Amino acid sequence: DAMVIQNPRYQVTQFGKPVTLSCSQTLNHNVMYWYQQKSSQAPKLLFHYYDKDFNNEADTPDNFQSRRPNTSFCFLDIRSPGLGDAAMYLCATSRDRGGEETQYFGPGTRLLVL
Amino acid sequence: KNQVEQSPQSLIILEGKNCTLQCNYTVSPFSNLRWYKQDTGRGPVSLTIMTFSENTKSNGRYTATLDADTKQSSLHITASQLSDSASYICVVRAYNTDKLIFGTGTRLQVFP
Hints:
heterodimer, A: 114 residues, mainly beta, 7-stranded mixed β-sheet, 11 strands, B: 112 residues, 6-stranded mixed β-sheet
């Protein structure tokens, strides 16, 4: 059974055209994360939600926004995608923060910017 | 600066052979270390987690070791299978923080 679901799996957008990536979870976890992973690089944390509390990483560009309308869903909005934003975007969840909490990753959305 | 370095960057082995992947970290203070397996085009899946007091942990054919004194970990894969072809990522959490520090991974390819 899928636990962390990401849609779409592949997204093609045009330079500057806003795009939204979706993540949903059936685990009822408190924390949801968005990572950006470029080819052959480690995932880079963009931001996370602890319940409704939004936590932005200091070096995340303003071009990236997020919404969490309820426990199950979290969205990544890219307001004006540039060529450098082409990457795999991974959503992850954890029951709580800190300690030995495991992060469960979705399959990712691969974004292509033309 | 907290960093996680992995070696080798890529590795090719024949099916049935064993292999060992290395992870060195400078994260301090240390909380725990995980090994994740990431299949191509998929999200990472946790294989093992070790805390400061643990020096070995097994998950089937995967055995992870940790030397907290030298800040080194290894992942040993026994009797490799074609399905082991993936990237293996070492991830370290510093004490009292939510942030994970990822290595860049070792790309393993298993050939028949």
